[in-house]
Amino acid sequence: MRTESGQIFRLEDYKPSAYLIPGIALDFALDADETLVTARLRVERAENAPDNAPLELDGDALTLEALRINGADAPVSSYEATPDKLTIRKLPEEREFELTIVTRVLPSSNTTLMGLYVSSGVFCTQCEAEGFRRITYFLDRPDILSVYTVRMEADRKAAPLLLSNGNPVESGALENGRHFAVWHDPFPKPSYLFALVAGDLGVVTDSFTTASGREVSLGIYVEHGKEERAAYAMDALKRSMRWDEERFGREYDLDVFNIVAVSDFNMGAMENKGLNVFNDKYVLADAETATDVDFANIEAIIAHEYFHNWTGNRITCRDWFQLCLKEGLTVFRDHEFSADERSRAVKRIGEVRALRAHQFPEDQGPLAHPVRPRRYREINNFYTATVYEKGSEVVRMLRTILGEEAFRAGMDLYFERHDGQAVTIEDFLKAFEDASGRDLTQFALWYHQAGTPNVALSSRYDAEAKTLTVEIEQSVPPTPSESRKRLMHIPLAFGLVGPEGEDLAYESAEGAVVENGVIHLRKRRHTIVFKGVNARPVFSVNRGFSAPVTLCSEGRTADRLFLARHDSDPFSRWQALTTLFTDTLIAASKAVRGGKEPAFADDLVQLGLDLAADATLEEAFRALVLTLPSEADVAREIGHDIDPDAIHTARRALLETIARAGRETFGDLYEGLHDNAPFSPDARSAGRRALRNTLLEYLVLGEGTPQAARRQFDDADNMTERAGALTILAQYFHDTEDGRAALAAFEERYRDTPLVLDKWLQIQAMIPSEGAVSLVRSLMEHPHFSLANPNRVRALIGTFSMANQTAFHSADGEGYRLVADTVLALDGQNPQVAARLATAFRSWRSLDKGRREHARALLADMAGRENLSRDLADILERTLA
Ligand code: ARG
Ligand code: ZN
């Protein structure tokens, strides 16, 4: 196997830069084929830096056109320029000097979507993490903070709009139909937050008055004709701005805040100072084209990027190892925002489902890494569920441990102390230690140690002594390059649920620190004795998912059935039910594999029906109750020697069992949920639609005919119901007239709406049939599919690899081959997206032998290719290691 010799970056090697760049003036002569960039850098030798240290500036695929030092052409012998580095050896004696660097870049042939590129005729940039070095030579690292002045000139017709960070300063006409604009950002910022946008776009404007009375002009820029689809994003933006003032005391700081939606984007969105650039998927929405999930994502991502203005921009990362400093914290903040705007319980369940689906397999496989990694070869590969979602869980635990008040005090101190700085996780934690007087040394392991801790638990009640004795033990499984783990501080929220469902009081608890309903697990083993407990309770633990751990408690089915009906914490009710469903699906898969019929307990099925019909519960919660663990969820719990076909068969059998048992109830419920009110994206209405869609699947399965789905598909006045019905038709009736007709009608209706066509691709990518691989291959030939657009690739190939378990893991290896072919085809043009797609293979070792062999062979074949990108080589090597 070919080994990649790329440089490895290590946290312990961090050194402050010998040079600083307090100011930069950029001048762009924009032209799609060839853009000239003139950068004037004010360079300063850092204190204590040796006088003769060469200045090494980062580049990536750059061509140097000119270099001037203090205005004079630099002698050729004084520097050395390659596409990825500019080294200047002879520098002026003075501590401060000016460098002028002229580079030539090629926006329209830039397929990596990093640096300056063109998307649907619009110039835009993506600089995080290391894209600025594709624009000019620079100290492209986040601890170099500079004040930016940006001048752009372009053809006035092609690009009437010229935007950059900060506030607009000046603009005007030039000769030859060109024009210019100058922007100035007074806040020193790292290069990854630089952005420009130039093009011809429509706009929605609004304004926001901050708490202290500053008037901010808001603009959301979208393709002409799509302005109305930006209304919801604007509303979400204003709510985010208000919320950050109220919950965190954070005000906006510039005169303008602009958002631009582009159709070719590697990730979700980017928080460039004053000029957020978004994947248009996370801006555009209306009833006709967006589902409720899309609306909720838009709200969350608009908030996320806005919140970065303080957690990321005003206070940024010292180096990329600290990525979670801004991402984990900002995800936590956007989660809290959505929880406040919607249903907190439902939001929390959604977060935990996503964490288990994306972060747990990462943490339990070859790509596991700490929330704050210690080494990387390619930083783009660390924009992961661990850094983001587990990073957010760690901040949530911090709040649980400190309590709301001390947590807020810590945040306030962090903002006060570090505004304008590039800092580390240690700085972050120190603010909380100082504000609360607590020692967070053991807690900090959550940042440093990879792996999902296991917590094993058992309890027994002594009726005579009136004591509940709980035994808890923690262990952290080994992960790549970390075989020995230290003991963690695990905060477990809990309750003693009494016979009537009430939380029982107790007189005292001994054996661990127990405060405010939280057990602080800090040693390997704790035996906790609750005294003065007057009735036998059911122990409810990890309420609200207070710690991101796997819980292994003694399997008392009766207790779980009880908690699912009675726990005062809605998360725990859902968890109890989910555990029961998962366990029964694991048993059923085993039965199927052994050639037996799967069987399901009546009381579990009845519990599902009762909760679904319980009108005292929110509809969105009831929809979650009826949503069985996914095939991937079950596979993850089985953990080794997985046979996806058996899981699929077992799950299908449970769906049908519930469908038959609930036929009447579900029919009535479904009809009763219909309302004639005009579409509204609010959480309550969305919950009703979610429940209707969930019920529809059971109705169709119970009846064995597509009629109900066909009716909903035809009558729907919104995308949630239309796509929901189409999903069911495609899953179960794709080879019937109804299925084919609905798919064709959908395609016809949305042929020219790419974001909706993505749903059409996605829905078909999930069809679990024999012909799945060839269907996906044929869809790749569709005139509107393109490897150049990340949204298309994710919709079709990403969905196939993540949500079509039987086809991706098809026993003949053809599913793996499809994904591998796509990864290789993509790597030459967009390494970031190719590498991300390749992570679909991360759990390959947990499959059964035949599948494992297919995966290994393909991975080894890919890894052996010449000219792999650093991104892809890194993922493949770690996956195979
Ligand atoms: N900072 C962005 C966010 O809000 C993500 C950008 C990552 N982009 C990349 N090319 N790695 O989460
Ligand atoms: Zn972010």
From TrEMBL:
Residues 558-881 form the Peptidase M1 alanyl aminopeptidase C-terminal domain. It catalyses: Release of an N-terminal amino acid, Xaa-|-Yaa- from a peptide, amide or arylamide. Xaa is preferably Ala, but may be most amino acids including Pro (slow action). When a terminal hydrophobic residue is followed by a prolyl residue, the two may be released as an intact Xaa-Pro dipeptide. This is Aminopeptidase N. Belongs to the peptidase M1 family. SUPFAM superfamilies: Leukotriene A4 hydrolase N-terminal domain, Metalloproteases ('zincins'), catalytic domain. Residues 232-443 form the Peptidase M1 membrane alanine aminopeptidase domain. Residues 451-551 form the Peptidase M1 alanyl aminopeptidase Ig-like fold domain. Its EC number is 3.4.11.2. Pfam families: DUF3458, DUF3458_C, Peptidase_M1, Peptidase_M1_N. Residues 67-193 form the Aminopeptidase N-like N-terminal domain. PANTHER family: PUROMYCIN-SENSITIVE AMINOPEPTIDASE (PTHR46322:SF1). Gene3D superfamilies: 2.60.40.1840, 3.30.2010.30, Neutral Protease Domain 2, Peptidase M1, alanyl aminopeptidase, C-terminal domain, tricorn interacting facor f3 domain. Its cofactor is Zn(2+). InterPro entries: Aminopeptidase_N-like_N, Aminopeptidase_N-like_N_sf, PepN_Ig-like_sf, Peptidase_M1, Peptidase_M1_dom, Peptidase_M1_pepN, Peptidase_M1_pepN_C, Peptidase_M1_pepN_C_sf. Keywords: Aminopeptidase, Hydrolase, Metal-binding, Metalloprotease, Protease, Zinc. One of its GO terms (molecular function) is alanyl aminopeptidase activity.
